[in-house]
Amino acid sequence: MINIYQQLDSNVITTRLDDVLNWGRENSLWMFLFGLACCAIEMMQTAGPRSDLDRFGIAPRGTPRQSDLMIVAGTMTYKMASRTKLLYEQMAEPRYVISMGSCSNCGGLFSGGYSVLKGVDQVIPVDVYVPGCPPRPEALIEGIFLLKDKVRKERFLRSPEEIVEKEKDEHIINPRDYSIDKVPKL
Amino acid sequence: MRDTEPTNLSNTEKYTIYDPISDEMELNMGPQHPSTHGIIRLVLKTDGEVVTRVIPDVGYLHRSIEKIGELGNYYDFMPYTDRVDYLSAMHANAGYAMAVEKLAHIQVPERAEYLRVIAQEFNRIISHIIAVGAYALDLGAFTPFVYLLREREKINDLIESICGARITYNYARVGGVSQDLPDGFKEKALEYLDHFDLIVKEYDRLISYNKLFVHRLANVGIVNRETAFRYGLVGPNLRASGINWDLRKDQPYSVYPKLEFKVAVGQGWTGTVGDSFDRYYCRIIEMEESSKIIRQALLQMPEGEIRAKVPRKLKPPVGEVISHIESSRGDLMYYIMSNGTENPYRIKIRTGSFNAMTILEELGAGMYIADLVSFFASLDVVAPEVDR
Amino acid sequence: MSNVHSEITKELGSVIGSDRVFDRSQQLLPSIEVHPESLYDCIAFLKKKPYEASYLDSINGTDLLSFPGPEIHRKDVPWSSWYGTDEKIRLYMLVYQLVSLEHNKEYIVKAVLHGNNPFIASIDSLFGNANWLEREIYDLLGIDFLNSRDLRRIMLPEDWEGFPMRKDYKENEKYWDMPTTRFNPLEAMKQRGIALKNSILKDKED
Q1: Which of C106, C105, C88 lies closest to C97, judged by CA?
Q2: Which residues, in sequence order, are bridge partners of residue B7?
Q3: What is the DSSP letter of B344?
């Protein structure tokens, strides 16, 4: 019996249930291929042989029902916006969205166009914004690491109303209720 | 039962009107689909597995590039030409620069012409890599695509040492190019091309004579001579139907008269002339010819300036101009109309993929769904070229 | 190239009538110009021998609303006899490009349409890819193509109002609850006169 107790010392870890679940979730985020334009090629090359996304546990899937991360890569037009909302609602919770490139952050190079939606966050809520035109593979991987930090700190087992009340980040301004008085002094 | 059926019928009559076996099914190969090349929607009306009608629906990536061009300068439009066809951006840049130089009568120095040719031929290689690799991926083979992506990364390194970017280059300027070659580029490029010639032969042996691959490509989507003319096909799609027309030989521009290469014309290697295997194999031959062109250009290149003197504010005379350039998807045409001021009045871009999409309605009927996927991938259509 | 277009003008004039064809082969882009009612006959003529146009390259459309004056209001231009010399007429221009592979030449045909309700015959039955090119011009400019087999919008959503490539097009405020502009903090600060400290824009303003 004493041998078993000695072996149990190095094989048993005590931790919180939240941490274990978050560790499992953050290391196997399955990605939904939603590449629209030039950033899609860069996303494809990030998942390619040189800078590999599979070593982080990210596997590409073709349908939203089997994935929990959606990378919106490319310009969003008005014609495509309703389909984006439909696909977002088909994903099961918990779900995350990364906006890749400047066209989906704010309209980017095509802000003067008549048929371009200026930013994908007017239709679906976004977690991480990755700037660039197109962003290099290293920049996209940094964006995914920021998302992993966010996933690690989530209180997954509480109900959503409790989370919103207790963990409101006050220094991050929601881009939707942006008014000039809240801009910090330079 | 549907709402449109009549309601005053007996039981036997009700259940024989809606016959699930002989009714038409409407299937949506929607905007987001892992097998289409960009966001293009095809609505298929099928009778079981056989397609009776194909209705393409485009416009999901219409970014109003032509209207934005009227807001700025002639020089300001260059980054937008990259995004018209992001897989062969050097051709689009050079075509626009050629059109403005024709309009304003600007002479380009010779070293700049050779630099443009080297950049364009590297771009043709990596564009065909994606076309050929994605074709195999559509049919279910993962390995060839990843093999070729490894080569694409190495060529991206070479191009990045010239111009600084990986996909949207913005390399050509009105009057020349923007930067010169770095030291040691020539030796690295020649060493890489020796390695690349062997890779193309290895890829050829891997997949081109595989029995399953040949069975899915031969005699599928046969385009004969009259059909190719009626729908205005250009580029490798036209040459695969047996027509010998290449803009680099028949209407030469830049320094192509001094370079020797062959034109890839379809011969019906397995099956009839003009089927999907011809379109696929012409692209592999073009990759081999491009590496020959780069070798000759690197050895023939003279010293000199890389950019001509152009005025700060360019005000060309009133008139119109048209320029053609042979890109990896066909004949890219720029039409510029100027009214004497700094801003262009109208820019129009006509791409090869737009004409290739019109052929789907006629030839798509009567095929199996799997054959339609193979036929659509052989036309090598890219979504922003269709919608601009 | 300029000789080809002068020859075409003479031969075409004998078929259609020489007051409907105009020779423009001396300009920067040599071409011929026809009255819109005889466009279909002109293109059918170019398809036969000895010109043998193989395929239709493209159709371009332009709105000539703010094009500079002298080109439009000169008296020796064909539009003066077709549409009068009124100072403020609204014109649209269409350019058809045909390519012949056997003779290695390109033929360019122009047609100028008048007014607030422009229309022209469609060349669907002669070339197969004309349908999509005409649909794009209808979508962006509003020109009506008669006898076309299928004319509806192609690039923009089907319930869009207006024709964007016209020079006097104005955007709506919203499209189905999605606003068409985005809040820009730098411009708002400039408007209210709030000074920017430690920014690179400050040197340019001074």
Answers
A1: C106
A2: none
A3: -
Chain-wide mean pLDDT for chain C? Answer: 81
When CB atoms are compared, the residue of C71, C132, C153 closest to B358 is: C132
Cβ distance B229 to C129 under 8 Å?
Answer: no
Task: Assess contact for B73 and B314: CB atoms under 8 A.
Answer: yes
Q: Do B358 and C60 touch (CB under 8 A)?
A: no
Q: What is the dihedral of CA C62, C66, C69, C75, to 10 degrees?
A: 40
- Tokens for B362? 């006629």
Phi, psi of B176 (to 5 degrees): 155, -140
> What value of ipTM does the predicted structure carry?
0.88
DSSP B204: I
B112, B307 Cβ separation under 8 angstroms: yes
- Closest to C57 measured CA to CA, from B217, B333, A12: B333
| Contact predicate B18/B2, CB 8 Å | yes
Q: pLDDT for B335-378, tens place per residue?
A: 999 888 889 999 999 999 999 999 998 888 889 999 999 999 99
Q: Phi first, then psi: what are they for C169, rounded to 5°?
A: -90, 135
Enter the pTM of the model: 0.88
Residue matched to tokens 């905007």: B31
Whether C199 sits inside 8 A of A111 (CB atoms) is no
> What DSSP line would sit under chain C, residue for residue?
-HHHHHHHHHHHHHHH-TTSEEEETTSSS-EEEE-GGGHHHHHHHHHSTTT---EEEEEEEEE-TTS-HHHHH-TTSTHHHHH---TT--EEEEEEEEEETTTTEEEEEEEEEESSS-EEE--TTT-TTHHHHHHHHHHHH--EEET-S----SSS-TT--S-TTSTT----SEETTEESS---HHHHHHHHTPPPPS-THHHHH-
Q: What is the mean pLDDT of residues C108-133?
A: 89
CA C48 to chain A, closest CA, distance in angstroms equals: 42
C104 touches chain B (CB under 8 A): yes
β-pairing, C31-34 vs C105-114, is parallel
**Backbone angles phi and psi of B83, in degrees to 5:** -85, 0
Given a contact cutoff of 8 angstroms between Cβ atoms, the answer to whether B343 and B70 are in contact is yes
Cα–Cα dist A95/B285, whole Å: 46
- CA C84, CA C98: separation in Å to the nearest integer? 30
Cβ contacts below 8 Å, chain A against chain C, sum to 38
State the Cα–Cα distance between residues B321 and B126, nearest whole angstrom.
30
Dihedral (CA of A106, A110, A114, A115) sign: negative
Enumerate neighbours of A (3 or more CB pairs within 8 A). B, C
C-alpha of B345 from chain center: 27
A23-78 pLDDT, tens digit per residue, is: 999 999 999 989 999 999 999 899 988 998 999 999 998 899 999 999 999 999 99
Q: What is the DSSP letter of B338?
A: E
Do B28 and B56 form a contact (C-beta atoms < 8 A)?
Answer: no
Tokens 């609505």 — which residue? B43
What are the two backbone dihedrals, phi and then psi, of residue A73, each rounded to the nearest 5 degrees? Answer: -120, 105
Locate B302 and state its tokens: 């003279």
Per CB-CB distance under 8 Å, the chain A contacts of C192 are: 180
Among B64, B80, B166, whose Cβ lies nearest the Cβ of A116?
B64
State the smallest CA–CA distance between residue C105 and chain B in angstroms. Answer: 10
Residues of chain C with a CB closer than 8 angstroms to some CB in chain A: 155-157, 164, 169, 171, 175-176, 178-183, 185, 188-189, 192, 194, 196-199
Q: What is d(CA A39, CA C82) in angstroms, rounded to the nearest whole number? A: 51
Q: Which residues contact B34 (CB under 8 A, 6 or more apart)?
A: A33, A62
- Contact check, Cβ <8 Å, B67/A49: no
List, in sequence order, every residue forming a beta bridge with C32; answer none if it has no partner. C23, C109
